Amino acid sequence: MKAIFKREWNAYFTSAIGYIVLAGIFFLAGTFFYMYSMYYGTTNMSYQFSAMLQYMMIFIPFLTMRMFSEDKKQKTDQALLTAPISIFSLVMGKFLAAFAVYTLGVSVTLVQAVILGSMAQLEWGVIFGNYFVLLLMGAAFIAIGAFVSSLTENQFIAAVGSFGIIAVFMFLDMAQSSITNPVLVKIVDAVSFYGKYEDFSKGIFNIANTIFFLSVSAVFVFLTIRAIEKRRWS
Amino acid sequence: MIEVKNLTKKYGDKLAVDNISFVVKEGEILGFLGPNGAGKSTTMNILTGYLSSSSGEAFISGTEILEDPIDAKKKIGYLPEHPPLYLDMTVKEYLNFMYDLKKVTLPRQKHIEEICRLVKISDVYKRVIKHLSKGYRQRVGLAQALLGNPEVLILDEPTVGLDPKQIIEIRNLIKSLSKKHTIILSSHILPEVQAICERVVVINKGKIVADDTPDSLSKNLSSDHKLIARIEGPYQEIEKLLSKIPQIISVVDLGEKEKDVHEFSIESEPGADLRREVFKRMAERGWPVVNMRSSELNLEDIFLQLTSDDAAALEEKK
């Protein structure tokens, strides 16, 4: 797992992808910091976090699109799958590398919080809640992206596909208002990401929702493993 | 060392590998020979755990590849048909990555340097793989397979894309490796297999059609004996004289090859060796025999014979 992690992490920064994603996240964080905190002179960073979250579904597919598709295309998967490591550690190595780049990106918000904190009293609970849910949802998005990437050789399809799936999860709430069937409403409620996000943004640590996001990540990591295993059998 | 039992691989309805079994002994070099699409790569991919077989077993020094893949994979060095190289890495980074990935425990620096010297890539060690020629890439792939001194080496067309000098180098390298490793190598280049391998498995359409040493393969199959002789003198008379030798079935004049020297293809009854007789008769008349060789089938002929016989047999069945 360590070898895979190291190789993936380095690959993000030998290609432009790592820099592009980091620059993009930093740019957004800076812009929203100015728009919401500086302009209104407030220490409430919740608006900034929720605005950033919307854009993560664009950035994360960039991080995950070549995760498995590139290996398949360049046939380097033959080296990975004939090496004495389990598919689990292969998937986790790649997953954690993407997650690490993502974490590095969104952690800029903590720097901003410290800057704010040096000038005014901060509600650190709210900030950590927001930061925490950003990481949780990021992990789920990355797992989804990893899964889509394991299905195709084409990076572009992987990126667009994972964007589509993430978007569906994110915006199910919007559809909810037009659904009347009580069973469907319950289902939508159960799998919607946005509804589970709100508690955290108020600084409430909701353990059920934490488990939900972790489960989504676990399910898609599991599906990724299955997809790679299935390739050997077909 | 390597034991394959009733291995079968189906892709949908298509049988890619059809119930093949063979054994490779320790320190042996086995040549895997067959036309493109015969199932060579598929078999190798199953042996290395990249693909799963539909049925059958494959043991790598006693470990079944599907039962304990991690243990079995530790014993294998694999060079696939396309070397699995990360083009964005330098040779150094790549080999260090593969060293970690394969969980090699030998002293890192020394071991990697040794392999680089062996496959002669020390001078490109710090270059990005993307910028290397096909020959160098192939060798980096081979270096990767050698990491950790695995007991078994599986090399899928190891000399593809190399120039003639490199081919000879790599062949010699593979030969010298067989002292410490058990090797399976595939090829559709016949002289290569003839030059390196102690045993040949010929595979066609997923089936094994022959399993023998290169020499006895050519002996067994060359049932009709042919002599090719170049003789100086009046060719019509020579042909007439040759036809009179009792055991000779036919003489064909292959034309003038040098000035006044004609080449004849002389077919005799099975088992008869006519070289001395031909020499004596010609010497009596004062017609010098410039050159004479018995035309044994080379692997090329055998290969064509085996694979086309098989095709014909299949046609008949239909």
Key terms:
heterodimer; A: 234 residues; 12 helices; 0% strand; B: 318 residues; alpha/beta; 14 strands; elongated
What's the overall geometry of chain B?
A: elongated
Tally of DSSP helical segments of chain B: 11
Number of helical segments with 4 or more residues of chain A: 12
How helix-rich are the residues of chain B, as a percent range? 25-40%
The chain-level structural class of chain A is mainly alpha
The count of strands of chain B amounts to: 14
Q: Quote the distance from N terminus to C terminus of chain B.
A: 38 Å
Description:
The complex is a heterodimer of chains A (234) and B (318). In chain A, 81% of the residues lie in helices and 0% in strands. By secondary structure, chain A is mainly α. The longest helix of chain A is centred in the last third of the chain and has 27 residues, at 207-233. Helix content of chain B is 37%, strand content 30%. Chain B has 318 residues and is of the alpha/beta class. The longest helix of chain B has 19 residues, at 299-317. Chain A binds chain B through residues 2-4, 6-7, 10-11, 14-15, 74-86, 232-234, and chain B through 11, 45, 48-52, 69-71, 73-74, 76, 78, 80, 82, 84-89, 93, 97-98, 100-103, 144.
Could you give a short description of this structure?
Chain A is mainly α. Helix content of chain A is 81%, strand content 0%.
Question: What's the helix and strand layout?
Answer:
The complex is a heterodimer of chains A (234) and B (318).
Chain A: H1 2-14, H2 17-38, H3 46-64, H4 69-74, H5 77-81, H6 87-106, H7 108-119, H8 124-149, H9 155-176, H10 182-191, H11 194-201, H12 207-233
Helix pairs in contact in A: 1-6, 2-3, 2-6, 3-8, 3-9, 6-8, 6-12, 8-9, 8-11, 8-12, 9-10
Chain B: E1 2-11, E2 14-24, E3 29-33, H1 40-47, E4 55-60, E5 63-64, H2 69-74, E6 76-79, H3 91-101, H4 108-119, H5 134-146, E7 152-156, H6 164-177, E8 182-187, H7 190-196, E9 199-204, E10 207-212, H8 214-221, E11 225-232, H9 235-244, E12 248-258, E13 261-268, H10 275-285, E14 289-294, H11 299-317
Parallel strand pairs in B: 3-8, 3-9, 6-7, 7-8
Antiparallel strand pairs in B: 1-2, 1-4, 4-5, 9-10, 11-13, 11-14, 12-13
Helix pairs in contact in B: 4-5
